[in-house]
Amino acid sequence: MTLAASSVRAIGVLSTGLLALGMLAACAPAPEPEPEPTETALFSSDEEAFAAAEETYRAYTDAQNDARQGDADPNDYLVGSALEGAIDGKRALEEAGLQLDGSVGLAEFRPIPESIDPGREELVAIVCLDLTALRTLNDQGEDVTPANRPDVIAMNVTMRWTKTSYMISEERDEDNAQCAA
Predict the structure, then answer these.
(1) Is residue 119 assigned to a domain?
(2) Contact criterion met (CB below 8 Å) for 106 and 127
(3) Alpha-carbon dihedral sign for residues 61, 66, 68, 73
(4) Contact yes or no for 126/132 (Cβ under 8 A)
(5) Which domain holds residue 105?
């Protein structure tokens, strides 16, 4: 066999091999498309969602108390009208020459089950805040807390899921009778 004949034969064998490989590839099933991610609920139950919301509200209350000593920023837990209200409230106190002293306790976090949306991304709760250890002071450091201020107040709180946690998006005054013992 001459060099030219062996080259032709090698090319023929190589071509036959490539043709066979191509035919096998054509017989192989097409690759399956990547599955579309399905949206899953944030929490497996309403109770779990409300527990996460309560945890956030407790952290917010702790941050408010710590902020009076300059150790935290409670605004980190707020968005939307709740954040605007907190900023306006702080400004109003400063303009009136008043400051808060002491702490607020979270007496109760009462979920409103019918308020939770299907994806558990938004919910509402009644929050009872214990103000017995909180005083209002004037510029001279005198206690000017109104004598008729209730010991416990009620707030209607809307919370919205952001990327990693619930945030307080709205706080409104509620009938204090909601928190009567």
Answers:
(1) yes
(2) yes
(3) negative
(4) no
(5) 46-179
- Which of 93, 94, 126 has the alpha carbon at shortest distance from 107? 126
Instruction: Give 44-100 as a DSSP string.
Output: SSHHHHHHHHHHHHHHHHHHHHHHTTTS--GGGGB-HHHHHHHHHHHHHHHHTT-EE
Q: What is the CATH number of the domain that holds 174?
A: 3.10.450
Task: For 137-162, give the DSSP string.
Answer: E-TTS-B---TT--SEEEEEEEEEE-
Quick one: pLDDT band at residue 180, thresholds 50, 70, 90? Answer: confident
Instruction: Note whether residue 10 is domain-resident.
Output: no
Residue 163 lies in a domain: yes
CA dist 142 to 19, 35, 92, 146, 147, Å?
95, 66, 18, 12, 14
Decide the pairing of beta strands 166-173 and 134-137.
Answer: unpaired
The tens digit of pLDDT for each residue in 16-75 reads 443 333 443 444 455 566 555 445 568 999 999 999 999 999 999 999 999 998 889 999
- pTM exceeding 0.85: no
Place of tokens 């108390």: 65
In a domain, 20, yes or no: no
Domain count, the chain: 1
